[in-house]
């Protein structure tokens, strides 16, 4: 029976700090290294002391895998690698590798410059951390070492997001990170083959939700923009460079065309440059299958959308502007915000999560008076809208993924176990409906291919045909016992003890003094240096592993005192 | 689909708010649990059906600052499994109990929704004495200190059973074999029934069976099947009972005189309805004299009864919800059919509607007649 151990260091008990430790086939892999966006102190980082108890992280962990660039999955990485200390490989996809450091640097700036945090990772640490990154392609089998291999699968969700299969020998685990099963305008749906892992680990925050359709979300966005523009207001949409911005632009362009609207739509130039760069990255990363599912177009060849100039912000009349950065913490989007905030006809649409300390976060919390540089107070009269465009798998999506991968077991990572009981039952019912005949069973055999003939025979048969001798694997273990008597007497004591305790097994005392339990052999010998100690040699075959281990633990507990 | 995009642009002026969800299975049930959640349930006959307790997206419940709530999704708060199909589900007010009915119609099932787990547990069953083959018992709840379940597939089998003791506390005691179409509890002592034939009655359970009733729609009525609903102000003056026929005829009646409809009109629907059992007529809790009907096709229609002349001629809806037709995802030959609908308890123009393609819509229509 494969033993796979999963220890969530964050996000297991608290949604928001994804970091999961997996031990499989003797290898230790850390999945994601996220931070909790709701805390300002050490609670925002996963608890690494759990691992470091065992010694140095680099010695203990075989690799680290990052699923995508969201801070709740990679935000603690520089802290982990440079401040706690890890020098091993960090695996992620190419787009993640390109985008991660930018978000980390942004986040660092906000934490240190805006909030004045002291013990935070530095820019240099981010750079040093990224030097340890090994980028992978989709569906590429990567050998981490002789035994451990990993493979990335497309996850949808955001650019570069991947689900990872981790394999050691015949045991495998699939970790989903965040994924999405419904395609949108610029990202395809997650996909995995029937890889049948022993365990599928899936984030299940949204497992108990039923998602509103993408069309209705888009409708809501259009309605808001339209309302603002109709009343002569200006709409500011702060965005991070890629993905969402392109999607919203396509949406607005289509709508403007259909409704024959005249109000200008602008995107800031900073956006174009970054966007083109990322767009190229995106194209080379995705495979054929995915390229087919999103809109093929030259990034900013829009009829109604033009490049923005700072001076336009003062133009009268309605307009829509896409500007960076996304959390209103600096740069052009903040500049424009300051100009437009005082007019209630205007609107700002925040398309994603904002880190604490940013203007975005403050207005989303309902704050309407903001203290800016130089103690100036800005009164926010413009309409604030929070729209969530990021896509997570809901109950239906999880069922689809489980259906695709066909795992033996499913691990739902969520804050509260009692809120997962229904989904657990649903998965069990849906996927164990098949009679036992179809359930995978372990078979020991040998496939003999001769000419164009295939035969599956027992191992003994194959060895005979090939004229090979069978190798026997035996394990041996030493157990030290305090016993000053002679070896033969110790052996006798062992025999009596085991005979009374292991009633279902065949325990025998052989003429040469050794004790057998089924095929397991126990011999007592004197300790070379200490006459008061006896050494029990316990040896068993590979087939009797379980009993052998059990027996060893039993003997380690010591023997009962002999009745005098 | 091109028309879906067009309809969505249209929808910007037709609706204030609009949400569209895909359930894993279609439902014929939409039962409110307080004003924050609804129950839905599957109705397939050959498999396990899910019963779900869904919480509405937060933005539909808050009164202010709606813009700051990005959550647009339903939350599955509780779920359970039923071996039989569920055609009706009632919540027992002020308790954590649900009662379901479906086929086979020999039992009603009682379920419990607990706080510390998300599983809806089966608690007990109530035997229905008369086994009826393809008929299933309608259910209504007398909620009081000792809740009672009113049920029956035919007039003769009508009973009230105490939920806890399972003792029968009321029995119609008649031999009438007329098939029931709906049952509705009006207060602690009264309930209303509507037979499939259109015969309506109000019953006081403190007395031996003596309903005030009508004999059914007169000669010339073309509908094969009827359903009815009693509106909120059934104690006040004016018509408060609406009955809907499978030919599209909608009658309004005063409970004091069930024999003579106060007003009637013919709805522009494709008659006869392909699934008369799914016919549904509801009164808007927040708008005077407004009704909604469904069950003829993939639409829900809203009517304002005050604008009728009442003489039985064609009437026009003030609003028609066509979302289920235009947003249908799978391009199957059969158009989706709206299986049920319900009004939001206090948002006046918000409705929920479910269709045979497992879609569930929450929509808030714009009253175009309202002076701006």
What's the short story on this structure?
With about 575 residues, chain A is of the alpha/beta class. Chain A has 17 helices and 28 strands.
Can you give a write-up of this model?
The complex is a heterodimer of chains A (564) and B (372). Chain A is built from 17 helices and 28 strands. Chain A is of the alpha/beta class. In chain A, a hairpin with a 7-residue loop joins strand 8 (148-154) and strand 9 (162-168). In chain A, helix 4 (77-85) packs across helix 6, helix 5 packs antiparallel against helix 6 and helix 13 (395-405) runs parallel beside helix 14 (421-431). The longest helix of chain A has 21 residues, at 94-114. Chain A is elongated and about 105 Å long. Chain B starts with a helix and ends in a 7-residue tail after the last strand. The model of chain B has no long low-confidence stretch (mean pLDDT 88). Chain B has 3 helices and 29 strands. Chain B is mostly beta strands and 372 residues long. Chain B has helices at 2-14, 58-61, 323-326, and strands spanning 15-22, 31-33, 37-41, 49-55, 74-82, 88-91, 97-101, 107-113, 120-127, 138-142, 148-152, 159-162, 168-171, 180-185, 190-195, 200-204, 212-213, 226-230, 241-245, 249-253, 263-266, 280-283, 290-294, 300-304, 311-314, 319-321, 338-343, 350-355, 359-365. Chains A and B meet through strand 12, helix 7, helix 8, strand 20 and helix 13 of A and helix 1, strand 1 and strand 5 of B.
């Amino acid at each position: 029976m494969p033993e796979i151990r999963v220890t969530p260091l964050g996000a297991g008990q608290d949604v928001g700090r994804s970091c999961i430790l997996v031990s499989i086939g003797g290898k230790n892999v850390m999945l994601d290294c996220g931070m909790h966006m709701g805390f300002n102190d050490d609670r925002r980082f996963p608890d690494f002391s759990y691992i470091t108890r065992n010694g140095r992280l680099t010695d203990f962990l075989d690799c680290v895998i990052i699923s995508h660039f969201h801070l709740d999955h990679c935000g603690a990485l520089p802290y982990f690698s440079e401040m706690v200390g890890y020098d091993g490989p960090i695996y992620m996809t190419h787009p993640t590798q390109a985008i991660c450091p930018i978000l980390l640097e942004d986040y660092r700036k906000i934490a240190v410059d805006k909030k004045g945090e002291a013990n935070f990772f530095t820019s240099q640490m981010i750079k040093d951390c990224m030097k340890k990154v090994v980028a992978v392609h989709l569906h590429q089998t990567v050998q981490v070492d002789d035994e451990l291999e990993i493979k990335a699968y497309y996850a949808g969700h955001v650019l570069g997001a991947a689900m990872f299969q981790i394999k050691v020998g015949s045991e495998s685990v699939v970790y989903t990170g965040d994924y999405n099963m419904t395609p949108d305008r610029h990202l395809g749906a997650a996909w995995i083959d029937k890889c049948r892992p022993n365990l599928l680990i899936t984030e299940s925050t949204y497992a108990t939700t039923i998602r509103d359709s993408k069309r209705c979300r888009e409708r809501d966005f259009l309605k808001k923009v339209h309302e603002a523009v109709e009343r002569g207001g200006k709409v500011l949409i702060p965005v991070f460079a890629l993905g969402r911005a392109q999607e919203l632009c396509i949406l607005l362009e289509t709508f403007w065309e259909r409704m024959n609207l005249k109000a200008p739509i602008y995107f800031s130039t900073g956006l174009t440059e970054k966007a083109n760069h990322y767009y190229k990255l995106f194209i080379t990363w995705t495979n054929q299958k995915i390229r087919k599912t999103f809109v093929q177009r030259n990034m900013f060849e829009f009829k109604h959308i033009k490049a923005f100039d700072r001076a336009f912000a003062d133009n009268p009349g309605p307009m829509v502007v896409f500007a960076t950065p996304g959390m209103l913490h600096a740069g052009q989007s903040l500049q424009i915000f300051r100009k437009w905030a005082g007019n209630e006809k205007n609107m700002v649409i925040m398309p994603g999560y904002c880190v604490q300390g940013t203007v975005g976060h403050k207005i989303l919390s309902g704050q309407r008076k903001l203290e800016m540089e130089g103690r100036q107070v800005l009164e926010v009269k413009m309409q604030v809208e929070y729209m969530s465009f990021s896509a997570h798998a809901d109950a239906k999506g999880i069922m689809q993924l489980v259906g695709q991968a066909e795992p033996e077991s499913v691990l739902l990572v969520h804050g509260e176990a009692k809120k997962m009981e229904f989904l657990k039952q649903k998965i069990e019912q849906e996927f164990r409906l098949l009679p036992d005949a179809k359930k995978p069973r372990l078979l020991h055999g040998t496939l003999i291919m001769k000419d164009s003939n295939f035969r599956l025979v027992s191992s003994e048969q194959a060895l005979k045909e090939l004229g090979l001798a069978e190798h026997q694997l035996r394990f041996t273990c030493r157990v030290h016992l305090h016993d000053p008597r002679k070896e033969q007497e110790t052996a006798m004591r062992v025999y009596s003890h085991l005979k009374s305790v292991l009633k279902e097994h065949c325990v025998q005392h052989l003429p040469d003094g050794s004790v057998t339990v089924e095929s397991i052999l126990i011999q007592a010998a004197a300790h070379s240096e200490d006459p008061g100690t006896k050494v029990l040699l316990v040896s068993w075959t590979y087939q009797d592993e379980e009993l052998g281990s059990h027996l060893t633990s039993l003997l380690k507990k010591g023997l009962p005192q002999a009745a005098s | 689909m091109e028309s879906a995009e067009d309809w969505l642009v249209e929808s910007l002026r037709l609706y204030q708010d609009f949400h569209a969800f895909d359930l894993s299975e279609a439902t014929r049930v939409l039962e409110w649990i307080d004003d924050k959640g609804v129950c839905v349930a599957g109705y397939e006959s050959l498999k396990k059906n899910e019963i779900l307790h869904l919480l509405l997206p937060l933005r539909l419940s808050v009164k202010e600052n709606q813009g700051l709530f990005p959550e647009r999704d339903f939350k599955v708060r509780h779920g359970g499994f039923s071996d039989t199909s569920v055609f009706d589900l009632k919540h027992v007010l002020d308790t954590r109990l649900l009662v379901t009915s479906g086929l086979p119609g020999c039992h009603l099932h009682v379920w419990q929704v607990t706080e510390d787990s998300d599983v809806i547990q089966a608690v007990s069953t109530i035997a229905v004495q008369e086994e009826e083959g393809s008929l299933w018992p309608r259910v209504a709840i007398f909620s009081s200190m000792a809740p009672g379940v009113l049920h029956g597939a035919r007039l003769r089998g009508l009973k009230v059973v105490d939920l806890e003791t399972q003792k029968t506390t009321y029995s119609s005691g008649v031999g009438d074999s007329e098939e029931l179409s709906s049952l509705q509890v009006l207060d602690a002592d009264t309930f209303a029934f509507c037979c499939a034939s259109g015969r309506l009655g109000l019953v006081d359970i403190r007395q031996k069976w003596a309903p005030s009733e009508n004999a059914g729609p007169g000669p010339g009525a073309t509908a094969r099947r009827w359903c009815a609903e009693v509106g909120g102000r059934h104690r006040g003056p004016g018509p408060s009972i609406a009955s809907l026929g499978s030919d599209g005829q909608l009658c309004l009646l005063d409970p004091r005189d069930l024999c003579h409809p106060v007003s009637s009109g013919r709805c522009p629907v494709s008659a006869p309805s392909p699934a008369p059992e799914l016919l549904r007529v509801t009164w808007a809790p927040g708008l005077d004299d407004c009704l909604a009907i469904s069950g003829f096709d993939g639409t829900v229609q809203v009517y304002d009864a005050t604008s009728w002349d009442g003489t039985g001629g064609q009437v026009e809806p003030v609003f028609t919800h066509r979302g289920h037709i235009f947003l249908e995802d799978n391009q199957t030959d059969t158009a989706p059919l709206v299986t049920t609908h319900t009004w939001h308890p206090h948002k006046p123009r918000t409705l929920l509607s479910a269709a045979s393609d497992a879609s569930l819509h929450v929509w808030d229509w714009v009253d175009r007649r309202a002076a701006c």
